[in-house]
Amino acid sequence: MKRPGEDAFCEFIERTEPQLHRALVAKLGWETGREATAEALAFAWEHWAKVTKMRNPGGYLYRVGTSRVRQRKSGTPFVPQDDRSH
Asked: Do 43 and 76 touch, CB atoms closer than 8 A?
C-alpha cells in the first residue's frame, strides 16, 4: 500500500537526485557526498509535506546535505614535542 504523495515524491527524486548528488559530491567528495545525498533524500521523505511547499526544494536539500554530514578534517593529529634537553 502506497503512502499518500509517494508517486509525487518518486517523480521529485527522479528530477532532483542526480543534480543534488553531483553538487554534494563536488563539495564533499565521493563518499561523504553520497552519504549527504542519502541523508538529504531521507529528510525530504520524512518532511515531504513541508518540502512540497518550498520554492527551491533542491537547494534546501543541498543545505540539509551539507549540514547533516560532518566533514572529516584531515591532517596530522597533535603530537607533543619531546622536551628532553641534552
From this structure: no
DSSP 47: T
Q: 69 and 32 in contact (C-beta within 8 Å)?
A: yes
Is the pLDDT assigned to residue 60 strictly greater than 80? yes
Alpha carbons 29 and 60: distance in angstroms, whole number = 19
- Asked, for residue 24, whether it belongs to a domain, the answer is yes
> Are 68 and 39 in contact, with CB atoms under 8 Å apart?
yes
Nearest to 39 by CA among 16, 61, 56: 61
The pTM (predicted TM-score) of the whole model is 0.75
C-alpha cell at 80: 607533543
Q: Using CA atoms, how far apart are residues 22 and 29, in angstroms rounded to an integer?
A: 10
Alpha-carbon distance of 53 to 22, in angstroms, equals: 24
Domain count, the chain: 1
**Containing structural domain, residue 38:** 13-68
